[in-house]
Amino acid sequence: MEPAINPDITPDMRPEISPLPGLRGRLTIPVLAFGGILMAVMQTVVVPLLPDLPRLTGASPGAVSWTVTATLLAGAVLTPVLGRAGDMYGKRRVLLLALGLMTGGSVLCALTSDIRVLIAARALQGAAAAVVPLSISILRDELPPHRTGSAVALMSSTVGIGAALGLPLAALIVQYANWHVMFWATSALGALGLALACWAVRESPVREPGRFDALGAAGIAGGLVCLLLAVSQGGQWGWGSARVVGLFAGAVVILALWSWQQLRADRPLVDLRLAVGRRVGLPHLAALVAGFAFYANSLVTAQLVQAPRSSGYGLGLSIVQTGLCLLPNGVIMLLLSPVSARISAARGPRVSLAIGGAVMALGYVVRIADSRDLWVIVLGGAIVSTGTAFAYSALPTLILRAVPAGQTASANGVNVLMRTIGQAVSSAAVAAILVHHASGAGFPSLRGYEMAFAMAGAVALVVIAAAFTVPADTADNGGRRSLRGTTGRTDKALEGA
Prior knowledge:
Mean pLDDT: 84
Distance between the termini: 27 Å
Radius of gyration: 22 Å
């Protein structure tokens, strides 16, 4: 039987939870990882459709771009909100809600050719972004300490794994079948993930009771929508346009007021005092820059290999061939996440994070050295993915060691949010560089791509600086997590324990 939920259990005072027996217990980690991979797949499957969607839906290219923007915005807004809801009302319950919204969005996409419904459905799919932080929190609650590191590392790496798998899968389906078939396929995968999660994941007794901060949720939603909308649409609308400047100004004002409200709330959506401390704030900064460096790899590689041969450097590959070039990146992240976990266990997650930043920077050096030969392009991308696997696997471990058990979902939700913001900024920055270095024939020059690689490599070096600035005393002491610098309520609870 599943343990009874006790809302009065305080963080890190929870009883020992025996593992689920039999097959359910053995499949809990794979099932949660499958959900994380699905989340990343849902974000990328629409990419092969973008060139044809205006013809298929009768919409303008600008309207079609919202099928990507809507997912980004919804995911950014819902990740911290659903993470906090999971800490308060049950992580399994909110995980199933996120998977259900993702699957429902896929079904709507499969049923419609109306661009307005399609955009709304893609926004529903964005709810899946909360799956990873919720799953990481569940793993912390359910697993013994010696198994948590490798499981959390795998869960964090599913973002890169799913992104690498989603593009070739979607491209193959779009090339050989009706485009609605792709969404029926993701609907079936989503239903499978939801059913497996219902069966293999049980509810954790660890809660942080209280009233949900609806005002805080509205504030962060408004601020993030303004910020990410300006970042994602700035290139199309014009960075100096009234809309973009107004959105940036609105984001500053709304987020400033939100921060003021959060610091005064009894039960804030985001514990800002904890989030801005070095033990948590620096991993959030590392997530931002790691997301930037990771996304530039996939984004630039895809454009470079698809450039026509007449450009002098392009390979003229199809979208399917491009997806296959990116496929090794996902395999690498899958294989190396346990290696990163072992290094984190032996040397600490700061070392894994620093290794990740250094290897990402090395990968971009390879990309700058040669971006004409396919095997070097694939090698350079694989090296960047190797670094990403180390960095992404270390980040949640740093967060788990620095926050109370009752805030793991919300804290990891903010960390995933920072990755998302980093990816959005990376997309805008890469686009600006490539447009600035466009040739007369209408495609970027090789110099533009090299500048983008140099920028991403320089940002990867910030990951190293952040890693070695994180305080070293966040490590476990005899299996007991250090919570110094967390909320006073948790400190008192530990003293009482």
